[in-house]
Amino acid sequence: MFSVILDACVLFPMYLRDTLLSTAEAGLYLPYWSQKILDEAMGNLVVKGRISAKVAKNIEETIKAAFPEAMVQEVPWQL
């Protein structure tokens, strides 16, 4: 099975985030991200006026609950 780091740029657009997380849930690959990636994606959604901070927090909590093993401490380009 493939392991994939999902960056903020693919977690930002709703249609792409939903597609990628659905395919991960179906077992096609293992998703990974860092807290920094989630902060960037959710922060951009709020800054751009797409969603409120409360909704962003709910989305982040839902993602974390659905994929608890996906959180990593560092990804190579954040070193």
Describe this structure in words.
It is a single chain. With 79 residues, the protein is mainly α. The chain has four helices and two strands. The termini are far apart. The protein has one domain. A two-stranded parallel ribbon has the order 1-2. The model has no long low-confidence stretch (mean pLDDT 93). It has helices at residues 8-11, 14-25, 35-47, 53-66, and strands at 2-5, 29-32. It is globular.
Mind sketching the topology for me?
Elements: E1 2-5, H1 8-11, H2 14-25, E2 29-32, H3 35-47, H4 53-66
Shape: globular
Q: Mean pLDDT, nearest integer?
A: 93
Reading side by side through the largest sheet, how are the strands ordered?
A: 1-2
Helix content: 40-55%
Q: How many E strands? A: 2
H/E element sequence:
EHHEHH
Structural class: mainly alpha
| % residues in beta strands | 5-15%
Low-confidence stretches: none
Q: Brief description of this entry?
A:
The protein has 79 residues and is mostly helical. The chain has helices at 8-11, 14-25, 35-47, 53-66; strands at 2-5, 29-32.
List keywords for this structure.
79 residues; mainly alpha; two-stranded parallel sheet; 54% helix; 10% strand; globular
